[in-house]
Amino acid sequence: MNKALIRVLIGTILFTGTLLLGGGQDEPELCQGNYLSEAAAQHQLAEIARSYSTLEEWKARARKIRTGILRGAGLERSA
Length: 79
Known about the structure:
Blueprint: H1 3-21, H2 38-49, H3 55-72
Helix pairs in contact: 1-2, 1-3
C-alpha cells in the first residue's frame, strides 16, 4: 500500500477512530506526527477493519468519522 495513503488513513483514523478503540472515551485523542510505526499503523487499520463487515456498519462508521472531523474542526452543524 502506498505510504502516503497509509499516512492519510492513519491520520483520519487516529483523529476520529479512537472513539471505537479508546474504550468509550467521550473525546477522541489526537495523535500527531509519527505516532505509530508503519507496522503498528497497519495492525491498527486491520483491527479497525474488523469492526465492520457490512455496508451499513461501514456507513455508520463513516458517519461517526465525519462527525468527529467536523466537530474537531469546529464545523459541526447544530441540530
